[in-house]
Rod shape-determining protein MreD (Conexibacter stalactiti), 193 residues
Amino acid sequence: MTETNWQLPLRLAALGFVAVIVQIAAISQITVFGVSVDLAPLVVASVGLLAGSLPGAVFGFAVGLFVDLALVQTLGVTSLLYILIGYAAGRLRELRDPAHGLVPLFVGAAATAIATIGFALLQFMLGVQAPVSWLLLRQVVVTILLGALFALPVYALVRRIVQGSLPDDPRRRRRRAYTTGGLSPLSRPSQSR
């Protein structure tokens, strides 16, 4: 592999490590309405939106495994959810090519919802006893709203970190050439003799 091929994995590894450490050491200590912001699903969704489904799923697995190891939780629960988040965000990029500026907001809200509700459901299915009440529902809703609020700044930061190492997408380059005044190969004037 050349140096440019190693840039994206190295940047993603550093990003995942720093994001989880900052989340555990600092962000989890700050509460708003009794809940704290979970940056990890937002970072995973942002990587999926920027790099695609496969890098998003691999990054989600690695970040989820690191979160499980750091918090001494059941291994694989967070990894499973983050794989889903990274892959779904990457497939959205590959299939729909969303260009609107608010797409990260909705993807961030969906990623936070998947992470929060999915973690609660998986823990319930694994037999962890936890009280279910209206307080839990309120915390889930506030967590999703906070995730949506922080989705745009997290996306902008992740884009700034990984932008130089993302491979060029030939579909975007081809489409951009045609929409900016370039001639389509089908509309070339015929050469007369």
